[in-house]
Amino acid sequence: MCRWAAYIGEPIFLDEIISRPGHSLIHQSHCATQCHTAINADGFGLAWYGERRDPGLYRDVMPAWSDPNLRSLTAQVKSGLFLAHVRASTGTATSRNNCHPFVVGHWSFMHNGQIGGYDLFRRAAEMMISDSLYPHRKGATDSEALFLVALDAGLEGDPKCAMERATARFEALSRERGTTPHMRLTAAFSDGGRLYAIRYASDDAAPTLYHRWSDSRQGRAVVSEPLEDGEGDWQEVPANSFCTFEGASVKIEPFAPGQWAVAA
Predict the structure, then answer these.
(1) Does the pLDDT at position 264 exceed 50?
(2) Within 13 Å, how many C-alpha atoms sit on residue 135's CB side?
(3) Could you tell me which of 96, 97, 101 has the C-alpha nearest to residue 47?
(4) Which of 17, 139, 143, 256 would be 111's cystine partner, CB 3.0–4.6 Å?
């Protein structure tokens, strides 16, 4: 499984999350501790928001620990809202188009988890993407397809409802044509103003997700794994939750794709 980290708050240098902490995202790319694969070397990516509405995007297929450009970029760029991801492929090719985050307009999205047996229903999943959004389908991952289906389901108007509906559709396809585990999902996404996160699974093995407010940074990190072993105030997000982070506020609601199962 992949590892990711996101941040919202006062602008900071990206390296304060991505490379400087003892268990930073770059460290997790080769020494992850809370997932089945310790090595996440199938590419990386960053999406950050600055002076313009649409985010900047930097992705590559190199392991995050071996790219000097990544360290240079994160040491110089400041942002008050960004998403970063290191990838462990679950079957699709290692290519730039398959690296997270994915961006459409002012929306950015990244995902960790799996949709069981996706190769068995890939064509059916692709058919759920509307003609208007299909030109944004650049790669072959289940993650990008889920993002585009959520945009079609109304992400702009109601992010929680849209993600529940999209998740229900993919889970239904997995139950009908795929394999177990049908859905394991942690995701982070943003419209440039708020940061959203999900922790969900169709079984009892939802991928890990934590958040922590920092008084020194005046901002919040949302991560797959805590960034420092000695910091005891990381809060674990409960399974089957939808989180909205805005400023210093946190809103956690139940995430229930099952209510949309009939329409899936």
Answers:
(1) no
(2) 2
(3) 101
(4) 143
- Residue 52 neighbours by CB distance under 10 Å: 9
| 161-198 confidence digits (pLDDT tens) | 999 999 999 999 999 999 999 999 999 999 999 999 99
The number of beta carbons lying within 10 Å of the beta carbon of residue 138 is: 13
Residue 52 sits in a domain whose CATH number is 3.60.20.10
Nearest to 2 by CA among 255, 213, 186, 260: 186
Domain interval for residue 192: 3-263
Please count the CA atoms within 13 angstroms of the CA of 31 that sit on its side-chain side. 9
Residue 153 and residue 182: Cα distance in Å, rounded?
A: 20
Opening angle at CA 207, ends 206 and 209, nearest 5: 110
DSSP 136: G
Q: What amino acid is encoded at 197 in this protein?
A: A
Number of domains in the chain: 1
Neighbours of 208 (CB within 10 A): 19
Distance of CA 251 to the CA centre of its chain: 18
Is there a cis peptide before residue 238, judged by omega within 30 degrees of 0? no
Task: Work out the number of other CB atoms within 10 angstroms of the CB of residue 207.
Answer: 24
pLDDT in tens, 80-109: 999 999 865 555 556 688 998 999 999 999
